[in-house]
């Protein structure tokens, strides 16, 4: 009788502490991610802020001085610097994500098993995923805000409203990569596949998705391949906004494409992580 009473009390306590929704559950992990960032943010300064600025100075200012500005060939940009900066901003949103949802996800499952500790109580897999992706979105937002502010004195922003809209676009770009890559990482048993992800995924996208030169300069098969990549959609949308050349139709296509990747990645991530943690 006492055992039944204890079990009933346990069930009652569990129900009382259960999160009222996915967002509520993710917010309960806010302290963990805030503490982790407070202890590690100094190590991300160079990769998040200094390196992109050096790229802008090297590719846009120094190399750009040797590139003749032709708006017809630079997608409306009046200088190569104005052309390359939005591409670098979007590319930075992508590259930052690769580092946040590959080895860290593997570590929280396989090495330090943090996810198992998080889900030992009333929290579920969906809460863990949302909290982690929310942290990634925060990292992208901070990096993008600093990047947009740092390059402003160079006179590359043609539209102030475009810059304001370009900021949430960077978060969308980050999540469009973060959710599918998170799902891929969640189901891996070995980290050896990450080298292929970086070499055959991130680097080609970084170089051939329109960040440094118009994809129309590529051969037709390669151009067709480039325009279906997520980063090209992010680069083109960011460039349209910062240059003040926004076209509503293409912009909506870009947003829908990136948004679809977020939704599909979220669905896949839940399935992959659930199966991985159950095994």
| Portion in beta strands | under 5%
Largest sheet: none
- Order of helical and strand elements: HHHHHHHHHHHHH
pLDDT < 50 runs, ≥5 residues: 1-15
Whole-number radius of gyration?
21 Å
Mean pLDDT: 86
Structural class: mainly alpha
N→C terminal distance = 35 Å
Number of strands: 0
Can you tell me the overall shape?
A: elongated
Helix share bin: over 70%
Number of helices: 13
What does this structure look like?
This protein has helices at residues 2-17, 22-27, 30-40, 45-62, 80-100, 103-111, 114-118, 125-151, 160-186, 194-208, 220-226, 230-243, 248-278. The chain is mainly alpha-helical and 279 residues long. α8 packs antiparallel against α9 (160-186). The longest helix is centred in the last third of the chain and has 31 residues, at 248-278. Residues 1-15 have low confidence and may be disordered.
Topology:
Layout: H1 2-17, H2 22-27, H3 30-40, H4 45-62, H5 80-100, H6 103-111, H7 114-118, H8 125-151, H9 160-186, H10 194-208, H11 220-226, H12 230-243, H13 248-278
Helix pairs in contact: 4-5, 4-8, 5-8, 5-9, 5-10, 5-12, 8-9, 9-12, 9-13, 12-13
């Amino acid at each position: 009788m006492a055992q039944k009473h204890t079990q009933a009390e346990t069930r009652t306590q569990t129900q009382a502490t259960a999160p009222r929704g996915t967002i509520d559950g993710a917010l309960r992990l806010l302290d963990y991610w805030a503490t982790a960032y407070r202890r590690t943010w100094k190590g991300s300064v160079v990769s998040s802020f200094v390196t992109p600025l050096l790229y802008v100075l090297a590719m846009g200012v120094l190399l750009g001085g040797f590139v003749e500005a032709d708006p017809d060939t630079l997608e409306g940009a009046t200088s190569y610097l104005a052309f390359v900066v939005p591409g670098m901003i979007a590319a930075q949103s992508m590259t930052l994500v690769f580092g946040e949802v590959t080895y860290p996800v593997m570590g929280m499952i396989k090495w330090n098993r943090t996810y198992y500790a998080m889900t030992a109580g009333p929290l579920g897999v969906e809460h863990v995923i949302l909290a982690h992706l929310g942290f990634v979105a925060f990292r992208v937002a901070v990096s993008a805000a600093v990047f947009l502010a740092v390059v402003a004195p160079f006179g590359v922003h043609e539209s102030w409203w475009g810059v304001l809209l370009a900021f949430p676009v960077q978060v969308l770009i980050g999540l469009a990569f973060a959710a599918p890559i998170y799902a891929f990482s969640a189901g891996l048993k070995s980290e050896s596949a990450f080298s292929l992800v970086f070499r055959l995924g991130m680097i080609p996208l970084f170089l051939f998705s329109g960040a440094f030169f118009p994809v129309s300069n590529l051969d037709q098969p390669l151009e067709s391949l480039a325009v279906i990549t997520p980063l090209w959609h992010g680069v083109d949308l960011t460039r349209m906004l910062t240059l003040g050349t926004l076209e509503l139709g293409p912009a909506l296509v870009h947003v829908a494409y990136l948004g679809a990747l977020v939704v599909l990645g979220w669905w896949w991530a839940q399935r992959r992580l659930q199966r991985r943690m159950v095994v």
